# Entry
Amino acid sequence: MTRRAAIKGVTAVAVGTVTGAAVYGYVHERRALRLTRAALPVSGLPRALDGLRVGLLTDLHRSQALSQAMALAAVDRLMAERPDLIVLGGDYVTFGDPRFIEPAADALARLSAPYGVFAVLGNHDDDRDVPAALARRGIEVLKDARTRVTLRGEALELAGIRFWTRRVEELARVLRGATATTILLAHDPRRLVEAAALDVPLVLSGHTHGGQIVLPGLGAIAAHRFPVVAGTAHRDNTTIFVSRGVGTVFLPVRLNCPPEVALLTLRTAGDL
# Structure
């Protein structure tokens, strides 16, 4: 075999491998929704709230690439777990496409939990139509706002920030006056840095899609700028969970990074 023939052969194998992976990621893996369970230690969590189950659904990205059937499947998968509380992490549509705002909200309207359903906005959501559509379905949208939930005789603060709320002093204004254990809902996991500086015990995020395409040996190349790409991490007294989310963006492909909804069990720090 000549050198030229060998190079052609290697190139053909490489192209075939990449093409095959892309087809697999488009046809199968982006639809292979999983339920992720995680136990999260929360500093200062009252004993009465130990074991509280929080459902997290984020990055739905309802679009031509994610059908209504796929959106409803994600909602039904989470509802089957009957969480005590549900939070939504943003990016309900892609690039703010108005055609999909009402369908996304219709799918999410099927969510319910004993202590409520709360949402924040992502960078793909507008500041008017998306929150209005969610609010009409009974979902409370926290836009640089905080609310208090009383459950099992104890209070829990939920603080939700816009994607563009980034500085410590901006987060501090949202958190000012909070006296109970606080959960920060921040679409962008980079807010872990500011949350840790403010001693927030728990952050729930999305945005990264887990990298969406994770290559063996290289990891999630598109998500290297994030302190946490997916799953659980800690910084000082702050725990963060980052969900891979449901949908995709730019390319309707996932590779080594299946979509997920998450059921998070809160635990009093030190009990794990």
Confidence is low (pLDDT under 50) at residues 3-19. The longest strand covers residues 34-42.
